[in-house]
Amino acid sequence: MDADRKGRREDSPRQRIQGELRELRQLRELRAREGGRDRRPETTTGTGRVRLDQPRTGRPGLITLPTYDPEAFGKLSERIARFLGTGRFIVWMTVVIIAWVVWNTLLPDAVHFDDYPFIFLTLMLSLQASYAAPLILLAQNRQDDRDRVNMEQDRARSDRNIADTEYLTREVAALRQGLGEVATRDFIRSELQQLLKELDGQKESSEAL
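RE: above sequence
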């Protein structure tokens, strides 16, 4: 009887632990079934676990919009804006306009492609102006962003310099205070001379006695 009671006492914690492990396995299986519905192949590892350090990718729709690299587009817009602001562009645009007008006025009518009042030339210049303005604004925005970053870096650098200067000032003041309490050579020499005078005076007084 005692042995059976001891066996039951020993088996009861073991059975309790096994039951808790069984419940944990069932709960894990339930979570795996529920998470398998929304799980994406991009956010899972080789072991089937969900990657929490990666965002979920949306499901591809029926219509996929074209994507572009904004950094590359910004660099291209800056190049175009720089070229539009040079004298070379003005010279080439003037040459093209003069050649256009000469071709459509002085040459025979059979080779004309834009008669007076040059509607097609006006359309081309309007398109060039309508595209040039947004490109210049985009380049200016990128330059403003760079200037703002540079200003923030300069401000942080100046704050660090001010903090370093204040720290060095405090250190120099502490060193001056410490040096003010240190005995100098002249002070020690004057003290020694005073001691020698006192010793000489005591010696003379003792000899007089």
